[in-house]
Amino acid sequence: MSEPAVTGSGAPGPVQRLRRLFGLPNDDPRKTVAVALALCLVCSLVVSVAAVGLRPLQQLNESLALKREILKVAGLYVSGQDVEQAFGRLDARLVDLDSGRFVDDRDAGSYDMRRAAADPATSVALSGPQDIAGIRRRAEIMPVYLLREQGELQKLILPVYGYGLWSTMYGLLALEADGRTVVDISFYDQLETAGLGGEVANPSWQATWRGKRVVTDDGAPRFRVVKGGVDTASPDAVYQVDGLSGATLTSNGVTNLVRFWVGDLGYGPFLSRVRQGLGEGT
Ligand SMILES: Cc1cc2nc3c(=O)[nH]c(=O)nc-3n(C[C@H](O)[C@H](O)[C@H](O)COP(=O)(O)O)c2cc1C
């Protein structure tokens, strides 16, 4: 009668298997694959931990960068200054775009307009002819930043955005208290081609916007980026800036986004209240 087979303590555990695998000679293909996989695992862990751990710092830096841009178009930026402190000079408010009235039951500081625009619960869909800025949805509520001196409104800064040729261009349009005249413009986030559409971020071009008007006396959007250049003799010259050479499609995108945001579906109702003297409260 034959002896039963000796099985020991059973199949090797995972640790034993790993030991065996890494104990193989270096030129064994199984070890090469195992080392490569282990390296990938360790690297992906390091990257994931860094991405999650550094996210709050990244968000803080993004928020500071945006505040710096807002200060720049408001004419309040001084290099090296404490951005948070300087930003305190501005009154950050939320505006219900349909009514043009302030929304005071939410914190403007933590409001995320991009998230609001992406969420169907907090945004409205724009149909073809309405969507001249190419943004598909528009948040119901948008932030605005007001600069006052001795209680008198001096400037207002409106976040604006729209599609160019390759990308959504995010900008800040600073207007005088008349709600019509440009103080400054900044396109702080866009991915148009450097040297062509990317010239929207060129400070020299942006400087040509100063003193231009975006709407007529009765509030109709009239601004245009003109291909070839502005005819200074034209009565419309005050509503126009020179087009970017070789970048007519981006230039058209800028025209459309400005017209959209200063129009009825954008800040139009709010700007109309600004022109009437902006009674406070909602
Ligand atoms: C590689 C490449 C990148 C381009 N990038 C842009 C751009 O960022 N914005 C733009 O309006 N046109 C861009 N163009 C040019 C457009 O295709 C188009 O020709 C141009 O907008 C027409 O402008 P123009 O009438 O002023 O020449 C690019 C073309 C090429 C080949």
Keywords:
binds flavin mononucleotide; 7 helices; alpha+beta; elongated; 282 residues; two-stranded antiparallel ribbon; single chain
What does this structure look like?
The protein has 282 residues and is an alpha+beta fold. It has helices spanning 14-22, 29-73, 83-87, 113-118, 203-207, 248-262, 268-275, and strands spanning 90-96, 101-103, 123-125, 137-139, 141-149, 152-163, 168-176, 182-189, 224-226, 240-242. The chain is 33% helix and 21% strand. The strands form three sheets. A six-stranded antiparallel β-sheet has the order 2-1-5-6-7-8. Strands 3-4 form a two-stranded antiparallel ribbon. The protein has a two-stranded parallel sheet with strand order 9-10. The longest helix is centred in the first third of the chain and has 45 residues, at 29-73. It is elongated and about 90 Å long. The model has no long low-confidence stretch (mean pLDDT 92). Bound molecules: flavin mononucleotide.
The arrangement of helices and strands along the chain is: HHHEEHEEEEEEHEEHH
- What is the C-alpha radius of gyration, as a whole number of Å? 28 Å
**Shape call:** elongated
* Lateral arrangement of strands in the main beta sheet: 2-1-5-6-7-8
